[in-house]
Amino acid sequence: MKEYRVGIVGIGAVGTEMVKILRERNFPISELRVLARSGRDEEIAGETVHVVRTEPDAFDGLDFAFFAGTEGSKGASQVYGWDAVKRGVIVIDNGDDYRMDPRVPLVIPEVNPEALDNHIGFIANPNCSTIIGLMGLAPLHYAVGIRRFVVSTYQAVSGTGRSAIDELDQQVRAYVNGEAPICEAYPHQIAFNVLPQIGGEKPEMPGYTSEEAKMLFETRKIFGSESIRVSATCVRVPVFNGHAESINVELEQPLTPGEARDIIENAQGVRVVDNLTEKQYPMPLVGSGQDDVLVGRVRADDSVENGLAMFVVGDNIRKGAALNAIQIAEEIIRRQNGD
Is 243 a catalytic residue? Predict the structure, then answer.
């Protein structure tokens, strides 16, 4: 089996998870090169790793480079991404800088792997909430078609990065000890609260945030349909890891909840957890650490024609970021090998 030289740019929550997943999945690596702002040794997943300072020639000889920046963290792929492509590297970018660039495929391997057919060396990872939501919706879309969906997200603080994880931990401890909370990662206290703003204002969509706009534009690009309508409300919640989404979808053709469950259950990377009597449904505590996206609470939505409601949960650091990027590389290798 051919082995590959792999680079990871950034060693935050997503970069660290990428190192773990590459090992877990036995990705065929001959060299793992970790890049960051400064060279140093870091302990990653229980092992000391030498970190190389990021500069253009640090990409020489690599086959794949994963840009692991946390959602909304800009800069690295803008500075180094296309230059790395010129050096013969396939770049897979977790950031949002090039997702809507017509040159760049936006890929969820279980949903639109064919988008990789004509890539030119640069592929984008969708937003974590888009990935998790579309893993549940794509099987229905390809079965009967989707006209529109309304989604409300419940997004964990790990989507912001380590500083937010530490901040939630500090605020909970401060509350228990009767101390004042420190608010730096977010403009308001996140412990015992919810924040109905993720991202900045989107001028071309008055009243919507950038995170909410991503759900619309990324969905249309991934599904290859400009007619799908999406209304999103994205909310940060005091959960350490695992995004949840409440989705109401209007289909092109009717499906019973049972038919929808069967379709979703037969899709790759998705698992139905749906037994209200036994109190079994998707929850962040259950979905965190898992590769599969969990779908439950599937029921009829009689407020629209051909309507269904569902609740979807996924690990935003794994499937919503690190795992999806590595699966893209695996799919590229499969296609190169003619599998």
Answer: yes
